[in-house]
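Lay summary. Proteins are chains of building blocks that fold into shapes, and those shapes determine what they do. In this project we predict the shape from the chain. Here is one chain we studied, written as its sequence of building blocks.
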Amino acid sequence: MASLKRNKSLYIDTEALSTLALVQAGLIAPVEKLMNKKEAQEVDKSKHYKGVPFPFAFVLAPSGKKNFDVLKTLQAGEVVDLINDKVKVGELTVEETFPINTKERLLNIYGTTDNNHPGVKNTMTRLGEIAVCGEYHVDYPIIEDNVKRIQSMITKTGAKFVSSMMLAANPLNRAHERMIRQAITDSDLLVIFLRKPFTSDGLRYDIRYDALNTFIDNFIPRNKVIIIPFENTYIFAGFNELILDAILAKNYGCNQLVIGKNHGGLGLYYDKNRLNSVFDHCKDIDINIKTLDELVYCDTCKTLVSTATCPHGQHHHVHYHSDSIMKLIQSGMVPPPILVRKEVSANILASLFPERFHNLQEMHYSLIPGSGLLEQQSEEQFYLKLIELYQTSSLT
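And here is the predicted shape, written in a compact code that computers can read:
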């Protein structure tokens, strides 16, 4: 009996797998397949696909010598296995293979080919010289689960108007909280797509997720918000991020995308005189884009305010710069509560510095007022009580 012929294999990383799964699920529609050479060239030139804005061709060009050697030999109609982390995750039926210009592709995605750009540097290591197109299927349950969770929440709440936000929350601060509250005021449901990058940058995803949940569970009506992990693949990392975020949100079933003025790519499209019309030239995406003014803490107003409405100068404003707040947290310091809610700070610090204190219980009973009962205290509870001491009025 003749032996069964084994398929050739292409090796893809999880970032490529996630992107293929997004397209397969229709979440980047009208892009629903890998583009062939002619389609790829037209999209790169016109920045449109099937009448909808799309900034660059959607192609699969995996790097590595093994992949290069296989890609050179593939013929139309041949079936190849897609391998991720030594496991077969799908199959692709070859339509054609074609060479790509890696520098041009980087320029289309990021607007630069400078290796100092973190996106360029990351993509260069995983971008090959030959692309392959054709019908494919991949197994990646995370994406399907996200779709089901959102649809289930919409059905459960009867939501008619669904807003969305793309949030890194790295870390979650008071400005993020205000944006979330503003987003739910005119919506039946808010979907927060919490960015989950494939490169290590800042707080781990689980820490950011727990911190965001701490805020929502305790200070927001729980049936108004759902958190969805959003794997921030390379196609969302460029200067076209805003267009792709809008396409993704729409295809997940959202009616509106809420963004701050520092959202990636906003500078290319923002019309200062018309705050809600950043996508006037992209109406075919069919989603409302709502922009929110920058929020600051004013030491004269003594509250969180919009820079557009506060009459006091910049020298009265405390800005919510994530990088600066992160430096405090990474140093083990508690950020001032006007920057980060104490419950959120306690949650993050307890996760980031586990078992930081020797004899925590002894410190707790020595420093923290209590009920007199001997109770086991967690690190998170200790941070909360410590922050309250920081907020206690000084001796006079």
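What the prediction tells us: Residues 266-278 have pLDDT under 50 and may be disordered.
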